[in-house]
Write a structure and sequence with these properties.
About 40% of the residues lie in helices and about 15% in strands. The protein is an alpha/beta fold. Bound molecules: beta-D-ribofuranose and calcium ion (CA).
Length: about 350
């Protein structure tokens, strides 16, 4: 199951998973983060419509972190969390159960079978651990996008966004998973690796070509703010408008005309952990530092005398990931919205 704060890159993660024949999405938990939780839930439902998905349960999570007030980041993801994309509002219903209940219920009903992917703050999962303390043993594997280890933060100098929004929840989760055997250790995709996953305008162009979308997808850094995609394929058009905003944000940060695809990368790892080489470490979260609150600290050498509780993704081939993303999402988009002349 997924727990997301959709979010531009969460959107791509969701579409990638919907496009992946080897993924069965049991449920989508909405977490407060990039934008408020109701908007996150609305975005999740709207993407399901765009992707013509079968009914998939979407739950609403906690509107606030465990202890601190919610911080959102419309500057990064746009006023509604999906950049410049404008998705028709969905009439799909939201689930009546909470996101935390969904986590607990799904792992109890499918012991050892569910992979959990969290690409937002860990609030819902921390709450689920109160309901079902055995959750770490019941889950097949947890994959988390979050943290920064031997690497600068993107929210404070030491702290990554998903952890920064709810550091107490992150600590609860890392502590709870310290009991699992090595093969069940969470795989953590931190900024150290996800900031190497740089999406470019060329990737968007290739996505359009793969989907048979017309005209050629062009996202240029000199484009005026009001330029939008004219792609004939709605999946390509909406994703391109979302990513255009994300690229503008990264440019403003001095990072160039790119965008970091943190969450789709973590989604790909959840489907196929062999995409990454990992290193075991004992991870803890700083909660009291006046300058470093929310920092994820990795003990690589066992200096704390505690067993590893995470496998930190360390090496990957970013272009192999983009080939996979473009192939899967492009083919999926073409199937959903066949190019003119290709209706058989
Ligand atoms: C993470 O923060 C969010 O803004 C992104 O969606 C991603 O999950 C990267 O730090
Ligand atoms: Ca996210």
């Amino acid at each position: 199951m997924l727990d997301v704060d959709t979010g531009i890159d969460d959107s791509l993660a969701l579409v990638f998973l919907l496009a992946s024949p080897d993924a069965e999405i049991l449920g989508i938990a909405s977490s407060a983060g990039n934008v408020g939780v109701q908007q996150v839930a609305a975005n999740n439902l709207a993407w399901l419509d765009v992707c013509q998905a079968p009914p998939i349960e979407v739950t609403v999570g906690s509107p606030v972190p465990l202890v601190i007030p919610l911080q959102t980041t419309e500057d990064t993801h746009g006023p509604q969390g999906i950049g410049y994309a404008e998705l028709p509002p969905s009439s799909r219903p939201l689930s009546a159960r909470s996101a935390a209940d969904m986590w607990a219920d799904l792992v109890r009903a499918n012991p050892g079978e569910v992979t959990g992917l969290v690409t937002g703050p860990l609030t819902n999962l921390a709450l689920a651990l109160r309901i079902e303390p055995e959750l770490p043993h019941l889950l097949h594997r947890l994959v988390v996008m979050g943290g920064a280890f031997n690497y600068a933060g993107n929210t404070t100098p030491t702290t990554e966004w998903n952890i920064s929004v709810d550091p107490e929840a992150a600590k609860v989760v890392f502590d709870a998973f310290s009991v699992v055997p090595a093969e069940r250790r969470p795989i953590v995709c931190a900024l150290d690796i996800t900031e190497r996953i740089e999406m470019t305008a060329e990737h968007l162009k290739r996505l359009g070509v793969r989907a048979g979308s017309m005209p050629e997808e062009r996202v240029h850094e000199a484009d005026a703010d009001n330029v939008r995609s004219a792609a004939s394929n709605p999946v390509v058009r909406h994703l391109s408008d979302a990513v255009r905003f994300y690229m503008m944000f990264h440019r403003q940060q001095g990072l160039g005309h790119i965008s970091h695809m943190h969450d789709p990368f973590a989604a790909a790892v959840a489907l196929d952990p062999s995409l990454v080489q990992t290193r075991p470490a004992t991870v803890d979260v700083e909660l009291v530092g006046t300058l470093t609150r929310g920092m994820t600290v990795a003990d690589w050498m066992g200096m704390w005398g505690r067993d590893p509780n995470a496998d930190i993704a360390w090496r990957t081939d970013p272009e192999a990931f983009f080939d996979l993303l473009i192939e899967r999402v492009g083919d999926f988009a073409a199937r959903l919205y066949p190019p003119e002349g290709a209706r058989l």
